[in-house]
Amino acid sequence: MTKGQYYAGLLQAVSTILPLTIAIRASNNMLITTIPLLARYDFGFSNTLVGLISALVSLMTFVSSGIINSKLHTGTRRFVFIVSSIIYAIVFPLFALSSAVSIWALSAMAGFVLGFLMPNVITSASLLPNRVDRERLLNIYTLSLSTALIIGPAIESLILKYCSLRESFIFFTAFPIIGVVTAFMLRFPEEEVRRESTGFRQVVNNPGFIAAVLNILTYNVVFSFLMTFGGVYARESFGLDYSEIEILFSVFFVTSFLGRLYLSIRPARRLWPYMASAVAITTMGVLAIALINNPLIYAIALLALGIPHGTTYPLSVVSISRAFKPEQRNAANSLFFSMMMVIGIIIPTITGYIADLIGIRSTFLVLIPPVLIALVLLKRYVAPIDVPRD
335 with 205: CB under 8 angstroms? Predict the structure, then answer.
């Protein structure tokens, strides 16, 4: 391969992954932050039911990502990926017409097709043969996630100044449509790699995979709760309107973007120092929210929590890229994504019930022990891949 061909391939990968990631993630984040508000304030759901409907989205994503997508061969997976992007664009605007009953079916369908979208984008971003370039592209991929998470809430905040929660789904359908257009251009692994089968045990027993899951657990416990109940908490504790709530989410993702920008410019060689620092910041941010009932402190805490959000996910996908061969990464990424969905199933379900008992603010304190336990376990499993073998 000549240098010209190499850089052309790199440019093609970036120009496809960036818009596709932004389109899928911006719309997906809109769903997971707006469905709870719609369920609570349009349909009168309790905290427990709000947690359950959020968990349903994650459950269906777990099924499609971890059980189905991880077993599909390249050609089939590409076909399913494109079809899923089309279904996603059809389902999305239907939330504007949903009822207290149909919102469950729509949430299940949206979660199901998302399970075929995100893992394949991650796999495509990890196909470059050179480690430094591969990890840089993975960090650029995660940077585009953060870009979507800034743009999405900011746009929704503007929409909600003039439109209802329901109408915002119609405007946001532009993002899934962009996803359909770019889905046809995504690169998949070569067909030859399908001869090697990667089993479930082979993936889950890999220290790099365990490290990736424990690392994401240290943050997603908090993140799942925050995305489900952060808007409800801001509205009920501080009286913020829907537009102001979305601005808060946008501010949160600004520092996430900066964290991922740093890792895109300077990919981490050692992973453990970044992982441990992320947990320290997460713990302090959660304590600030739980102990000080003040809107300014809440906003500052969200800014702080954005930093570990920005660094934790890219470090996990780098862990997987270091620990698995290219032909094994689809299975590893699909199972990793499904593990994230398991967290998204368990946390809203349990914390929704707890929040009905002790309140949302006090529930933040309940999140700290599992984060610290995951950190203790993480130190052991990250060691084999902490320093890469170039």
Answer: no
Q: Which residues contact 180 (CB under 8 A, 6 or more apart)?
A: 82, 85, 86, 88, 89
Phi-psi sector, 187: left (phi>0), alpha (psi -120 to 50), beta: beta
pLDDT per position as a tens digit, 329-361 = 777 877 887 788 888 889 999 999 999 999 999
